[in-house]
């Protein structure tokens, strides 16, 4: 552990904070027995919305060409995608729709340009497309290109992955996170399947509807699906310079599969992602939050069950690329209940890394340790923080015992955590020190530089000396994560404004981050 010294609360003389054991060695009784740990709120309620979040929902249930099969379920997808947007705390005024005949190629392009103009630095964006997908040959021997099919089809009515990445570039260059969900398949003609449309034998019992493949044919050589018994947007966005941390792409199927439309319940991918995000996904790793990967696993299980007895089709596979550890909303996580469904609980390092992976990779934070090995009883923690943006510095720590997570800075002795762009901040400061005191092992540090201050008062009841603490259990991790990933005043009227007039230094949830580790060793 580290002993903490401080130069007086009142006397300003140097003294040790006795009787308190930090995370490196033991669990303080005051934290272990704190009854508020049972019922403490862990995140925003589903009724909370944020003015810095936006959604664009594109849904095409019919096409100008009568020969292109209709997708009645896409109308339902509009409502399901709206529920997903609400779960992500997006206000109604910030949800925009492009439907059916308005969803021409140029209509979709303009909607994405308009969205680019509306979003601000540090915002979150959700883009949802439900409709037909297609694949066509690029050239002789050059493979196939995937595309979304707009209402008007034709050359203007196809939006390739490359064009979509270009249209999204203006959004991804400004925003904190962009979540794109495509409920379409890109398997091409599938002439062997024709346009297989039929009602399942269990339709009345299960209230399930007609299944329709979400594809339309362009090129025969690109029409070889693998999930009939007898769809890479991320790569293009990466080519545009977008870091994988900042984009999440969920596709209804693999590049050579078809996905399905249920005319009573909507696209299988959309309806099941909705159900999992709203209530059914489980916290498999006991991290205290539901990640996109856990939502994907939940939805995939539902797709498999839906098609398990189908005589014609196998289940299609959801594909998640980009930041699979993205947490759409820090709400109370449902613990894993299925036998064998959970993995070993995450370590303190992994708990901090989960917050690290919510960072905006466009914000650069650097941490330099004076020493990466500290001799127990002799050396003190000494580091510097550099940021390329103005912000507020937060220093969290997890030790080798995995008992608690600690917020070392700001603390009761030092609240001055503002940093200017290009400035170097040295921590700890002279009037509070953190000294290595064992046991031997590796300690992990997370430094956040947030655009806006965070609200730390809910952690104040769990204090160890001048520091705030949170148990390294699902509830404690969720509480700390919810507090650190949301601006202090994000629920204020000024921050809920949907007119785009928001002060990022007050309202932004975005932050840059850096992680590092050090070892505590016995004196040589």
List the helices and strands and how they pair.
Blueprint (H helix, E strand, L loop, with lengths): L1 E6 L6 E3 L12 H4 L3 H4 L13 E7 L13 H15 L7 E5 L5 H14 L5 E7 L2 E5 L6 E6 L8 E3 H12 L4 E7 L19 H4 L4 E3 L19 H7 L7 E5 L8 E3 L3 E2 H13 L11 H16 L11 E4 L25 H9 L8 E5 L3 E3 L7 E5 L3 E8 L5 E6 L8 E2 L4 E4 L4 E5 L4 E10 L12 E2 L2 E5 L2 H11 L8 H4 L7 H4 L3 E11 L3
Parallel strand pairs: 3-4, 3-5, 5-9, 9-11, 16-26
Antiparallel strand pairs: 1-2, 1-22, 6-7, 7-8, 10-12, 11-14, 12-13, 15-17, 17-21, 18-19, 18-20, 18-23, 19-25, 23-26, 24-25
Helix pairs in contact: 3-8, 4-5, 5-7, 8-9
Structural commentary:
There is one protein chain. The protein has helices spanning 29-32, 36-39, 73-87, 105-118, 161-172, 203-206, 233-239, 268-280, 292-307, 348-356, 474-484, 493-496, 504-507, and strands spanning 2-7, 14-16, 53-59, 95-99, 124-130, 133-137, 144-149, 158-160, 177-183, 211-213, 247-251, 260-262, 266-267, 319-322, 365-369, 373-375, 383-387, 391-398, 404-409, 418-419, 424-427, 432-436, 441-450, 463-464, 467-471, 511-521. By secondary structure, it is α+β, with helices and mostly antiparallel strands. It is elongated and about 80 Å long. 50% of the residues are buried.
